[in-house]
Each structure stands twice: as C-alpha cells, then as structure tokens.
Amino acid sequence: MPRFFVNTVEGDYAAVTGEDARHIAKSLRMKVGEPVILCDGRGTDYHCALTSIREDQVELSVLSSEPSRGEPALEAVLYQAVPKSDKMELIVQKAVELGVSKIVPVLTERCISRPDFKAAQKKRERYQKIALEAAKQCGRGKIPQVEDMLPFSKAVELAVNHGQTILFYERGGAKLADLVSPQTRQISFFVGSEGGFSQEEAQFAEQKGVLLATLGSRILRCETAPLCALSILMHIVGEL
Questions:
Q1: Which terminus of the chain is more exposed, N or C, with fewer CB under 10 A?
Q2: DSSP type of residue 27
C-alpha cells in the first residue's frame, strides 16, 4: 500500500501536497476511494482513503490509526566514519531499512574522503533524501536523521553522553552478545572507514568510556560492517 509522511494529521481529515501529491496523481494514477497509509513521523500510522485528487494537493479521510509496526524499540545511533565514493549512500539506505534511529558522519584520522563543510552539507541533503525514501519503502514510523559531520573526538563525547557506546575495532574487542542484552533500548556505535580506527583513536574512546567490540575474525568492508552490526543488534533485542 502506498505510504507517505506528513507533518500533521488532524481529526478525520488529512492532505498530501507537493511532490508526494504529484506522485499519487501522476505516477501512481490512484483513484478516489483507494487506500493510502500516512505517517506523522512520530511513530503513528494512519489508514486513509483518497477523497479528492489534484496534481498539487490530495485529500484523504482518516479511517483508523495505530503505532507504526516498522519502528523498532531499540534506539540505535550509527556514528559512521566518512567512506570514499558513494558508499555512504548505501550505508544510509540499508541502515534505515534495518532500523537505525540516527546516522552521524564522522571524520577520523584514516578517512580517505575529507570533504569540507560546504561539500559535507550538500552530501547530507542527499543522504537525508535517501533516508526518507528508505523509510517510506520499509514501513518506518520515523524518518532517521542524518546529522552534520563531526570530528572523531567531538562525536565520541556526544555519544557517551547519551548512554552505552560501542566502537568496532579491527584489532579486537568483546562480542556484541557480551555487551548488549535483549533489554537494551538505547545504544550508539562507531564504525570506521576504509582504514579503520587508529590505535590512538581506540585508546581515546576507551578512556571516555566507549566499549571496544569485534565483528569476528574477518575484516569487513566499511559498507558491510555497520549493516552487520545493526543486524546483530536488532536480532539480540528481538527486532529481527
């Protein structure tokens, strides 16, 4: 069933405007009476029926509402070291599908790609659009935010102030099953770029209270590691 995010749903009436309205009218060629799901972006789904279709605005009647089934109980924040090429686009898309709550690009010592602020901001806008489309496709109840790029030290300090934090380190660490329980409801985790994390960065993170973890004996690509980690986390807490 087509699914769209809206800012507000008031009573028994809802409206979709702009690009989404044009998509309903022109691309999907939907008809009055057909069902649509609207989501308020705060975890509630509204089952609606189309009552009026124009190219610039679509009106709907609200039939019922329920908590979004696709929104996980675990709040998982990914701190991803900036990879080269278009790997970040894949990471954002798949992480949203797997249930990530937020993605923070991080500039580390071994990042090959080192965009300046202007370039990073332009990429962020692209990543946010990808997150929106992925959230629509997979039935999320919230649109995960892609934040501004942060230097490693500042990202670590931000993460540890919001609860349990893990850094995946290629030189070893504890297994996720030993760090996370089925009752865990909030976690932040760091994944490196192509070169991983330096020993100094790992030591700095440990000194700040970050736990070092491993994803096994094989070295995973930077676009594979966050998706593997997120899948394991969601499995542990019963979301996969």
A1: N
A2: I
CB distance 240 to 100 below 8 Å: no
CB atoms within 10 A of CB 80: 28
Q: What are phi and psi of 68, to 5 degrees?
A: -65, 120
Residue 186 tokens read as 């909030």
Question: Of all helices (H) and strands (E), which one includes residue 22?
Answer: helix 18-22
Q: Are 211 and 173 in contact (CB under 8 A)?
A: yes
pLDDT digits (tens, 9 = 90+) for 136-169: 999 999 999 999 999 999 999 999 999 899 999 9
Non-local CB neighbours of 167 within 8 Å, separated by 6+ positions? 173, 189, 190, 197, 202, 205, 210, 211, 212, 213
Nearest to 110 by CA among 13, 24, 201, 7: 201
167 near 81, Cβ under 8 Å?
Answer: no
Short-list 158, 104, 154, 159, CA closest to 127: 104
With b for 16 or more beta-carbon neighbours within 10 A and e for fewer, the 219-240 pattern comes to: ebebbbbbbbbbebbbebbebe
- The structure tokens listed for 168 are 């995946």
Q: Does the global pTM surpass 0.90?
A: yes
